[in-house]
Write a structure and sequence with these properties.
The complex is a heterotrimer of chains A (369), B (89) and C (351).
Chain A lengths: L9 H14 L4 E7 H9 L2 H4 L4 E8 L1 H4 L2 H11 L4 E5 L13 H6 L3 E4 L3 H10 L4 E8 L4 H13 L5 E8 L1 H10 L7 E5 H7 L5 H7 L3 E4 L3 H17 L4 E3 L11 H10 E8 L3 E10 L8 H4 L15 H5 L31 H15 L4
Helix pairs in contact in A: 1-12, 2-16, 7-8, 8-13
Chain B lengths: L4 E9 L6 E6 L2 E6 L11 E5 L2 E5 L2 H4 L1 H15 L11
Chain C lengths: L3 H7 L19 H11 L6 H4 L5 E5 L2 E10 L5 E2 L2 E2 H15 L2 E13 L4 H18 L2 E10 L7 E11 L15 E4 L5 H7 L19 H9 L4 E6 L4 H13 L1 E6 L7 H10 L12 E5 L1 H11 L9 E10 L3 E4 L5 E4 L12
Parallel strand pairs in C: 5-6, 10-13
Antiparallel strand pairs in C: 1-2, 2-7, 3-4, 5-7, 8-11, 8-12, 9-11, 10-12, 13-14
Classes of the chains: A alpha/beta (369), B alpha+beta (89), C alpha+beta (351).
Chain lengths: 369, 89, 351
């Protein structure tokens, strides 16, 4: 496939690995923000290509993982109401709530459907006027414009039986929370390429300056990630801390203005709770009052939930890069992809699931798992 | 996160917020909303995420991943290289 | 007779974990395997069942026979390249073939939902007939039931089959040896994507047709030429990845495959990229893996390629002497990773 396959070239990958080794003179800890990048790294075994000096730490860039437990419970509750078609991206179906997940809600008779796009949910609403269609609007900035457009069109077209359950989070505040922590070990970042395709990368400049960390906007294919790491290491070795763009073929500096416009039209920035991490100020999106009628939490009056995480789950520490999955006492024991205690064991690019799928045998030979 | 895949625009219909394209991904075609890329035209390559085109793929920039390597190659030849056992397959 | 209460106390699959059956239990992944291993197989106290192969092979009245059954619950009933009827015939024909048997007679049980249009039933029956003819087998007995509206998905079909084993070989995971070559009969993922393209909310335009096909012809060619086949298995639900893991675990040996040698059509790959699927775990209905010794590999490949349904056969990997039953894949990039079983069905993703 064009603009995809070329970036999986073995020789080029080896060349990049060689280059990174050539310029590395001391240990560095680099975090890739985006779960999709984690997925790629583990799937293609990219960290095998890196020398031991480079430690890749997996960030909280998994909106599925950071959706608060209470919200999953609300989703499950709404999904079981008669007359509701609860639709969602596939990612959310197996994320554990306090009692069960959306798959469980389906097993109990809820009409739960997987959709590719929020616009498909709007279409469902038009086709099923006697039902209430709810869409689980989860994601980072990349997905917000899609949700914004669905809600905007719903209002324009006067669609009354459509609403969204919003769980949107923003990347820069998460980065600052990580960098601001006393136990932070991250020295450089690979920023999320598709988030930046929407938002641009201007907002990372003050972060790089304040915390003196290089930030490289990076894509998702093996060559992208390797080049991103090479550029980050080059900066670290030279003592630079700038924002650079590796993913120039897809990311303009200012991002996508039309998308940003619609995001601002429909959403406002709010404080948000991140599962496993806690509340981060101004780190989430919520529907503006003008669009409140499309807010599923209000429409269904699900009330307040307080939910307790498993005491064994250390997903927060893992997502902030302070611990690795196999350092969790429950990893592979009480917590497996079949019976996950926390979201990172379920989500496709959750660090724990990635480790479990691809690393277990190795870990077994070193006495873990 | 944010699986966005590059595809080629085969045809376009509609206007403004309802402007759509049929986009080709290696032989499968999907309807994609173009509201966020008003400048997109037939034969352009776009990145698609959850049914929306979010960015154009710049062909010239796309080659730079390989250009960078070539640069490094040339720099590497000038610098002193210690033998690297595990690299060639 | 044990009471339900007794059963709950001694059930090895803790009911508290999954008080009800979920869709994941049918998905071909770990949960389904657990259900079968821990609850179902122990109830069938027979060494034949314990062999865990696609069918049971035994001697009866001097003949060596293979016997198998399979049920079909696909939605939609009709999809590009096939329908529930052709699946039902080819699935059982293939299971018998994987035992090294020549499939001869099939039974067919139909469970119809009240309200199913007669025309639909007629189309399914015609498809059963045509598929049986194409595979060279006869439908000799059957049953028909009707259930209330809402209690069935239109049509459920069960087929069972009997075949004649005309080789002395034991074709089973236990015969797999270190050094064996793994052959794959064709490109993967077509069936899974063909079905996906029709699911509401995920539709896309494509020319991808299911690979649903009978493999008995290809297998018969190998047997007639006396190729030393060690093991055969068709891919079905859970895909190439899951099937390799099943064989590796059953044989106790390690299998390594080369990603760049596993054929995936461009359009199937494209659909996988868009929906976030890994072709390794997509369903197939007309593909098999063949384990032979290195010395037999070239001959086996040549023979497979003369059959219409295995024309794309290629070598994809090797069995190593390592114990442990792991499956490893060398990626395009040159790094190696472990292939693990998914816990349930693969779901489309945006992340």
């Amino acid at each position: 496939m064009k603009f995809l396959s070329e970036y999986r070239d073995a020789n080029a990958a080896q060349s990049y690995a060689q280059e990174i080794r050539r310029i590395t003179t001391q240990p560095w800890t680099i975090m890739e923000i985006c779960g999709g990048q984690t997925h790629s790294i583990v799937k293609f075994g990219l960290d095998e290509l890196l020398s031991k000096e480079i430690e890749m730490v997996h960030g909280p860039g998994c909106p599925v993982c950071v959706t608060p437990l209470e919200l999953i419970d609300k989703a499950v509750q709404i999904a079981q109401r008669p007359g509701v078609i609860f639709s969602s991206f596939g990612d959310m179906l197996r994320v554990p709530g306090s009692e069960t997940d959306l798959f469980g809600a389906k097993a109990r008779g809820g009409d739960v459907r997987i959709l590719y796009s929020p616009l498909d949910a709007l279409k469902l609403a038009k086709e099923n006027p006697s039902k209430e269609i709810v869409f689980f609007a989860v994601g980072f900035e990349t997905t917000a414009p899609a949700h914004a457009m669905a809600v905007y069109q719903a209002k324009q077209q006067g669609i009354k039986n459509f609403s969204v359950l919003v769980s949107h989070v923003l990347v820069p505040p998460a980065m600052e929370a990580i960098l601001g922590s006393e136990t932070n070990r991250v020295q450089g970042f690979l920023a999320a390429g598709h988030v930046c395709a929407i938002m641009g990368y201007e907002e990372y400049i003050p972060i790089a300056a304040r915390y003196k960390v290089p930030i490289v906007v990076t894509g998702f294919e093996p060559l992208d990630i390797l080049q991103g790491i090479a550029m980050c290491v080059a900066q670290l070795e030279a003592g630079r801390h700038e924002v650079e763009n590796q993913y120039t073929r897809a990311v303009p500096e200012g991002g996508n203005r039309a998308a940003q416009h619609f995001m601002k039209e429909v959403f406002r920035v709010v404080n948000r709770k991140w599962r496993g991490i806690g509340e981060i100020g101004s780190s989430g999106l919520s529907l503006r009052p003008e669009y409140a009628e499309f807010d599923a939490e209000l429409r269904f009056n699900v009330g307040d939930y307080t939910a307790e995480e498993s005491p064994l789950c250390i997903s927060g520490l893992i997502m902030q890069g302070q611990k690795k999955p196999h350092e969790c006492s429950a990893f592979g024991r009480q917590c497996t992809p079949e019976k996950p205690l926390g979201a990172p064991m379920v989500s496709n690019e959750g660090a724990c699931a990635a480790y479990y799928r691809y690393r277990r045998a190795e870990l077994a030979t070193t006495g873990e798992g | 996160m944010c699986l966005a895949v590059p595809g080629k625009i085969i045809s376009i219909s509609g206007e403004d917020l309802a402007r759509q394209a049929r986009v080709d991904f290696g032989g499968v075609l999907k309807e994609v909303n173009l509201a966020y890329l008003p400048e997109a035209q037939i034969d352009d390559y776009v990145l698609v995420h959850v049914g929306f085109a979010i960015s154009m793929v710049d062909e010239e920039e796309a080659g730079k991943v390989f250009g960078y390597l070539k640069q490094m190659d040339e720099l590497g030849e000038l610098a002193e290289l210690s033998p690297d056992p595990g690299v060639k397959r | 007779m044990s009471t339900v209460k007794d059963f709950a106390l001694s059930c090895p699959l803790p009911i508290t974990d999954y008080p009800t059956v979920t869709l994941a239990h049918g998905g071909g992944g770990k949960l389904m395997h657990q259900l079968i291993e821990k609850m179902i197989l122990p109830a069938f106290d027979s060494p034949l069942a314990q062999a865990r192969h696609d069918g049971a092979v035994f001697e009866l009245g001097g003949a060596r026979l293979a016997f198998t059954t399979d049920s079909y619950v696909v939605q939609p009933l009709f999809f590009p390249g096939g329908d529930i009827g052709s699946l039902a015939i080819n699935g059982t024909v293939n299971d018998l073939s994987m035992c090294g048997a020549r499939p001869v007679y099939l039974s067919c049980g139909l469970i119809l939902e009240e309200g199913l249009p007669m025309e639909t039933l007629w189309a399914v029956v015609q498809s059963l007939k045509q598929s049986a003819e194409a595979a060279g087998v006869q439908l000799v007995t059957g049953d028909t039931k009707v259930v209330d509206r809402g209690k069935g998905d239109g049509v459920f079909i069960n087929t069972a089959g009997v075949g004649l084993v005309e080789t002395e070989l034991t074709i089973a995971p236990s015969s797999v040896k270190a050094g064996d070559v793994v052959l794959l009969s064709g490109d993967i993922g077509r069936h899974g994507i063909a079905i996906m393209a029709m699911r509401q909310g995920l539709e896309f335009e494509s020319k991808i047709e299911s690979d649903c096909a009978p493999l008995n012809g290809a297998v018969q060619k190998l047997i007639a030429a006396k190729v030393g086949i060690h093991c055969l298995r068709d891919l079905t639900r859970g895909g190439l990845g899951t099937t390799l893991i099943e064989i590796a675990e059953a044989s106790g040996l390690e299998i390594t495959i080369d990603e760049s040698r596993v054929p995936v059509r461009d359009d199937v790959a494209g659909a996988c990229e868009v929906l976030g699927f890994d072709p390794l775990y997509l369903a197939n209905e007309g593909r098999m893996i063949v384990f032979v010794s290195e010395s037999e590999a070239a001959r086996a490949l040549e023979l497979l390629r003369t059959d219409l349904h295995a024309a794309g056969a290629v070598e994809i990997g090797r069995v190593s002497a390592e114990r442990g039953g792991l499956v490893k894949m060398k990626s395009r990039i040159g790094t190696t990773r472990i292939i693990d079983m998914l816990s349930g069905e693969q779901l489309p993703r945006i992340c």
